[in-house]
Amino acid sequence: xxxxxxxxxxEETRVKxxxxxxxxxxxxxxxxxxxxxxxxxxxxxRGALYHNFGDKLGLLAAVVDEIDSAMAQQAKxxxxxxxxGWNGLMAEGRTYIELALDPEIQRIVxxxxxxxxxxxxxxxxxxxxxxxxxxxxxxxxxxxxxxxxDIEALARMLNGVALNAALWVATSEDPQTTLHKAISAFECxxxxxxxxxxxx
Length: 200
Prior knowledge:
Helix content is 75%, strand content 0%. The chain has helices at residues 6-28, 35-41, 46-53, 56-81, 85-98, 103-117, 124-142, 151-171, 175-191. The protein is elongated. The model has no long low-confidence stretch (mean pLDDT 93).
């Protein structure tokens, strides 16, 4: 069996630390997660964490990016299953909001993420999602399916509504009831951009 390269070992360490951080942050929350405990659980040292992520906050950013990117992929899969286009875009939004019912997502991405990493619109994962929304809206605009409005502005507004709806669900005392309200409001607001027969 060939020896692992330095790059392979570094990636293996990074994956272990992200997994350990994800488990610790989900169970205890970012503030109460001990760096010594989470590194020990991965069979690593604090030095490995500092080398790969700078500090505990850097590890949180990597964990949030991993989870939020997976959320975006699930949303995209739902959009593809709905046939893409406007229906796909709405399915993506609904799915992203629904994922706020997951306890791990609630705690790490929707509570600790904004509290410790700041404005989610500046996260790399959110910016990738924004670019995907811009691309879909651009196609819809070319088809004449949506009203004439700045595409980037519209994408930011739609993504912002979905994100804030998810944040609301995550912090609600009754997430299931809040979910239905949030999705209904999201779809109602979003539908305002569609070109209706009378608009043509």
